[in-house]
Amino acid sequence: MRKKLLTAATGAGLALATVFATGTTAQGHGYTTSPSSRQQQCAQGAVDNCGAIVWEPQSVEGPKGFPGAGPADGTICSGGNSRFAELDDPRGGNWPATNLSPGQNVTFSWTFTVGHSTSEFDYYITRDGYNPSQPLTRADLEPQPFLTVPLNGAQPGDTQHHQGTVPQKSGRHLILAVWNVADTGNAFYACSDVNL
Question: What is the DSSP track for 106-127?
Fold first, then answer.
């Protein structure tokens, strides 16, 4: 009888531990809302066939250290997370795009569901000649961010807004926003399609 009770208690303990562990990792973290990111458009139903990102727009988390490290080329918009591979599909260059003007002062906004101690936020833009019908690679991006916002270990609130100037470019481009977390080995990635 004792052996049965011990086995049942151990099983219940493992089940509870699994529930709690799953609860902490599945809460997600944050995504860009302005300009609208691919994951936001999926969550809002602006595009179809998005897979699991519809329910977890805040969960595009991958290795940090971009561009020297981080997700592999072709998987940058999903943060290298295969569950969200739909974000890497260029859809023939037909993702809805936000209209911006070169040289325009823009507010880049994030929404957070779970905060983290933060190193900085980096914003990259694609080079001239970028082909929006192909998955994003490092070679498509300017090598340096056009905007970096340091937080020096501070934790953002529910939202974060950054002022920046849109680079002098024209045509279809993509802005990659990277939230570099200070207290884990990961970062969060968001791709926003824009027309300049």
Answer: EEEEEEESS---EEEEEEEEBP
Closest CA to 183 of 78, 4, 29: 29
Q: What are the residues whose beta carbons fall under 8 Å from the beta carbon of 105, sequence distance 6 or more?
A: 163, 164, 165, 166
Q: Read off the amino acid at residue 151.
A: L
CB atoms within 10 A of CB 51: 15
pLDDT tens digits for range 153-193: 999 989 999 999 999 999 999 999 999 999 999 999 999 99
Low-confidence ranges of the chain (pLDDT < 70): 1-28
Report the alpha-carbon distance of residue 63 to residue 187 in Å, rounded. 6
Residue 194 contacts residue 175 (beta carbons within 8 Å): yes
End-to-end CA distance of the chain: 73
CB 39 within 8 A of CB 87: yes
Identity of residue 183: D
What's the confidence (pLDDT) of residue 13? 41
Domains and CATH numbers, the chain: 28-195 (2.70.50.50)
Q: Could you give the CA distance from residue 76 to residue 136 in angstroms, rounded to a whole number? A: 6
